[in-house]
Design brief:
heterodimer, A: five-stranded mixed β-sheet, about 25% helix, elongated, B: alpha+beta, Tetrahydropterin Synthase, Chain A, five-stranded mixed β-sheet, 5 strands, about 30% strand
Chain lengths: ~140, ~140
């Protein structure tokens, strides 16, 4: 019987939206305040949704403590209280929340302690969020 | 197709325990959730139905009706109860959030289907604001 288990994690990080592919003026026009040279930050909420059969012995899709260990090791410790622009994943990619969402999906996809990664949702503020279900 | 969701909250206690396992294994797998005196949560239940808006009323379903179905089928059985001891579906199954999502679906689906029109699309249960499970029926 397939069900889904979801868990939300808090990540506070800074970023600056900027691409070398555009001129300074075009960057400002495209990214607005998010192009501020010194960056700014968000309290991101990373929501991880794991799908799979409910294990009849445990009643679980995935053991939450084991999931927490993986997400903390691979995502929270990497990005929390960090500058996203300096992470190698964003060396050649603007750290928009779309790209962060896709990066988190990639970091977790093959590392889960059970079930399949169904979806990653990243909330940048209370009013905007992004979702990635893989390619 | 329009998807309409109604939220409801309930409070209940539970513990996680597999009687086929030793006490040590239960504690290892379930951690503090294996405390046999139980503990509790304020759960939030989200019930999503899918359908076309009625051409006369503009409703997918009447929200008052949906609230009554949720109260009758789920809250009356689970709210302010000990799930392991008082909810029949957890006499044997462990009341994990995953199993609660499935059990809530099984309680709601016949009533929603019998009403005609909208179909039950998804049930999601938050155990805390950071932990939830959902069930979408047999795929």
């Amino acid at each position: 019987m397939k069900a889904y288990f979801g868990r939300r994690y808090l990540v506070s990080a800074s970023h600056r939206l900027h691409t070398d592919a555009l001129s300074a003026e075009e960057n400002r026009a495209t990214y607005g305040k998010c192009n501020n040279p010194h960056g700014h930050g968000h309290n991101y909420v990373v929501e991880v949704l794991v799908g799979g059969a409910v294990n009849p012995e445990t009643g679980m899709v995935v053991n939450m403590a084991a999931l927490d260990e993986v997400v903390h090791a691979r995502v929270v410790e990497r990005f929390d209280h960090a500058n996203l622009n300096l992470d190698p994943l964003f060396a050649n990619r603007t750290p928009t929340t779309e790209n962060l969402c896709r990066a988190v999906f990639g970091l977790l996809k093959d590392a889960l302690p059970g079930g399949e990664l169904e979806r990653v949702r990243v909330e940048e503020t209370e009013n905007n969020f992004f979702e990635c279900c893989g390619e | 197709m329009i998807y309409l969701t109604r939220r409801a909250t309930f409070s209940a206690s539970h513990y996680y325990w597999n009687p086929a396992w030793s006490e040590e294994k239960n504690r290892q797998v379930f951690g503090r959730c294996a405390n046999r005196n139980g503990h509790g949560h304020n759960y939030t239940l989200e019930v999503t139905v899918a359908g076309e808006p009625d051409p006369v009323t503009g409703f997918v379903v009447d929200l008052k009706w949906l609230r009554e179905v949720i109260e009758r089928e789920v809250l009356d059985a689970w709210d302010h109860r000990h799930l392991n001891l008082e909810a029949p579906e957890f006499a044997t199954a462990i009341p994990t959030t995953e199993n609660l999502a499935i059990a809530a679906w099984e309680r709601l689906e016949p009533a929603v289907t019998a009403a005609g029109g909208a179909r039950l699309n998804r049930v999601r249960i938050y155990e805390t604001p950071e932990i939830f499970a959902e069930y979408r029926g047999e795929a």
